Structure formats: structure tokens, C-alpha cells
Amino acid sequence: MPLKDKSKKNQFEDVQQIDDDGYEYVTIPPDGGYGWIVALAAMLCNLVCDGTLFAFGTMKLHLQKHFQCSDMLILMVGSVPCGVYLLVGPIVSGLANRYGCRRIIIIGSIGAATCIGLSTLSPNVGTMMIIYGVFGGVFFGMVYLPSVVMVSFYFDSKRAIANGLVTAGTGMGALTFGPLADYLMGKLGWKVGLLIFAGMMLTCILFGAIMKPLKPQRIPIEQSETQSQEFIDIISDPLTSSSSCEEATTNEINLPLISANDNATLKTNSSTVHNIEACGISSLAVPSSQIRVRTISTSSRASSTTSAGHRLGVLNPEHAARPLYKKDALFTGSRLQLHASHLSLHSNPYMASITNIPAAINEINKKQTASRAFVDILSTMIDFSILKNKQMLLICIGNIFSMLGYFLPIMCLVSFATEDLKVNQTHASFLLTIFGFFNTLGRFAGGLITMIPHFSALHVHNVLLYTAGVLTVIASYAYNFTTCAIYAGLCGFAIAPHMSLLPSIICDCVGLDRYTTAFGILFLFRGVTSIIGPPAAGFLKDYTKQYSLAFAVGGAMIIIGAFFHVALSYFEPELIKDKEAEDEHEEVV
């Protein structure tokens, strides 16, 4: 390039950089429009992904007949992918933040379909466990989690409705894929049946392609030192904190969250951030190369009010488009639920701490922002310091027990009916349909029940989880198809809130700032015990030659898990802050 042209290019870049200093970037959830297409695509991803995993209860009969193996081994083939796709949640989240949800879903779809197809070549059950279970579980996770995140990226106030649609996909998969698997494998053989399921998995490529990322919008930053100082003075006055919170919310004044590592600016703005966050204003957990108070003039307030929610911008447009930099990316409810759900415990846990997602970015490490997009989320989701929170520790221990019995009706009920009770195999496969229908109904009903006065999310969750455990114990006395069907319906309904209401309970316990960390750790606990539960039931069946003891023990595990969640009411919500943030806060005080 000639020296003259190079000089002009450098001048243009300098001018562009100066111009960009007056702008920030935001991604505003449309809360509708194309977002409903994304929600529908996510629902279909869940239908295929969860439907395939839940259908293993029917597949088991055909696979066990071919491999001539014990119940423990064949159930491990079905439990390993269910556990692995939870265990890889933190890694998949980091990859989705780095490369985008759409790309990860497409790769996951191709990988999962390939693993299902290759598993038909397995010479023994151990090989199938590795191909279908371990590698297939990784790719199933790459389809499931990013699809949920994309719905959260497109919806804010209507998120609960959108995720209700997505949840329906899991129920529809359980409704249809069990009988479908029995029909295909019964008529065409288990290998052809699995190949057809692999073909259905490839349809998620199309569903993933639909989920295009939101484009950041470029918005001018209106800076007014006088207005900013007045705002700081108002919110710093404890006597006017209540009125200032109301005024801040009304005027949509947002302040970027700062990293615990951004020491230079933290000392200056710590008290300001603390007071603003005490008002309950949630925002994007994104990096910023400088921390600025952003005030919105009268002329711009109208437009900002119409897109209320995430009007906080960042200086780097790439970070605005990264879905996992939103603190509520994994929260499946609406923002209204966040503000209301704290009433179910003792105090408001949403007094946010200074976030540590991700570390602040300066001029030196801008080139590393792409890799940090992965590292930030991965390190956040495997931060075991969250277990210092007594309530979160109880939730994790409770889930260790509850997940030991959670997959029991899904994996073993059909076998229990056919082998122990001599029910016709075709009829028995419809037990999964009954379970799936009432499970979907329970996920919707759980949220509605919590709207009844004095029925908090925690209480509803605990009562129904305990009920599911008792029903599973009683199921060991089932004696025909009708009693099995009654158990499938009641248990499917009762155990549903263990998935649908737990997000609100976790937010009550740790706050929105630490929600991503809490769910990442919960993924790990659930993943390990999901792998152990069904094979343990299979071991009891191999030992006793019946499933009765397996259902009795599995139900007891769910009951124990319910008691650990009941214990949450005896502890005050804690907000665990990053140690560096605590040290900085002490210095400011």
C-alpha cells in the first residue's frame, strides 16, 4: 500500500475511533415478532433432543434383547447422555458465548445425528455407551442449552410465555417419541429405528439456522457532568434512597456493571454502583473499557422507555451480541417474576453485588476478547465458591438425592410394566405418553399455582416434589397397566416443578448476579447423579429380579431431596460477593 494511502487510512481510523467514543452498543430484546419464530425453533429442538433421550425407556427393551446384557449396563447407555449433556453445560455455554448459539446448535445437531448413526455399528454395549452415551451426550448438550439461551436473548417481559412454549417441546417429545420408538424398532429393527432418529436429529440444523443473533444497536452516549453529579448526590443520600430508586427507574438511568478487577474505576464509582443496584436495576454483565454514568435526556427518554429493559450499552459491539454476558441468560422466567419471587423467602436477594462476569477489558487485551468470551463464562459457571451460600449448598445436596430418582419413571416404567406386570409392550410404551402429557401440564400449572396468595414457589416445589417421592414408593405396589398409568400421570405432574420452579428459587437464594454461577454448579451436581440413578435401579433389578425395590428406593431418594429443599426456609438468603469486590468495598467504606 502506498505511504500516502496508508496515512489516509490511519487518519480515517483515528477519526472513527474518536467518533466511536461518543457511542455505545446495546441489544434490545424485541419481545415478539421474529422472536416467536426463534421460540418455535427452540421448542422443536427440545422436542427432538429431549424426546430422543426420554424414548430410551422404550428403546431399552429392543437394545437389551440384542446385546443380551444386564439391566444395569443397558440403563447406563440411556443415563450417560442425560448426565453428560448437563455436565458439559458450562463448556457449551462458553462456546456459545464465543462462537454464537446458532453455530453451536448446528454443530451439535450434526454431531448428535452422527453419534446416533454410528451407535448402530456398536459390537457391544460398552462401545454403544461411549458413542451414543458420552459423545452423543456432549452434542445433545450443544443443541439443548444454546436454544434456551437464544429464547432469553430475544425475550424479556414475555420470556415466561416464550419459555413455556419451549417447555412444551419437551412434553411433546415425551408424548410421541416413546410409542414411535417402539413402533419403528418393532417393525424395522432397532438399527433402522435409530437411523430414523438420527435423521430427525438433523432437522435441528434448520432450527438452529433460524436462530440468528440480535444485531447490536449503536446509540449515542449523552454525557452531562452536572446531571451525573446531581444523580450521584441524590442516590448517595440515604434519606432519599427510596425516592431516588423510584426516580431512577422512571427515568431509565443505567450504569454499566463493573468488574471486580477494574480497580481503578471501582474506588471512584463503588458507592454509586452499590446504591443503583440496591434499587433492583438489573443489567448486562458485560465488559467495558471505561465506566461512565449514562444519563438520558428528555428527548431520548421516550425511545428508551419503549424498549425498557436492557438499555445499558457497552463500548465493544461484539460484547453486546454475546448472549451469555447477560446475567439472566439462563433464567427462564420473566423480569416481573424476578421482582415478585423474592417474597417467597425472607428478604430481597436482588441487591446486586459488583459482577465478576467478565473481567474488565483494556487496550492491551482487546485482541484476546474472543477467547475471553469463552473463558469468562466457563470460569464463572464452575466457581464452587457459590457453595459458601448455605441455601445453594442445600439445593445442590437436595438435587443429588432427587436426581437419583428423577429418571426412574422415564427409564424403567415401561420395563417394569412389561417384565414384572406382563403388560403388552405396545400398551406399556404409552405410559411415557401419559407421563409426558401430565409433566407438561405440571410445568405450566406450577407457575399458575404460585400466583395464589400464600403459595410461594418454594412451598409449591417442596410439596409436589415430596408427593412425587411418595408416589414413586407406592408405585412399587402397582399390579396392572391401570395402576401404572395412574402413577405415570400423577408423578409426571408432581415432579414437573422440580425443573420449572427451581430457577426462581435459585434466584431467591443467590441473587441474579450469581445466578449463572449457581446454575453452572447445579448442572454439575445433576449431571453426575443423573448418570448414577438409572444404573443403580438396574442393579437392584438384577439383584432382586424385580423393579419393586428400585422404585421404593428411588422414591425414598426423591423424598430425602425434598426435605433438603424444605430446609431452605430456615436460612436467610445470602449474597456471596467476589473476594476482591468485598475488599474494594471495605476500602471505600
From TrEMBL:
InterPro entries: MFS, MFS_trans_sf, Proton-linked_MCT. This is Major facilitator superfamily (MFS) profile domain-containing protein. Keywords: Membrane, Transmembrane, Transmembrane helix. GO terms for molecular function: monocarboxylic acid transmembrane transporter activity. The chain crosses the membrane at residues 34-57, 72-92, 104-123, 129-153, 160-180, 192-211, 392-416, 428-451, 463-479, 485-506, 518-537, 549-571. It comes from the Eukaryota.
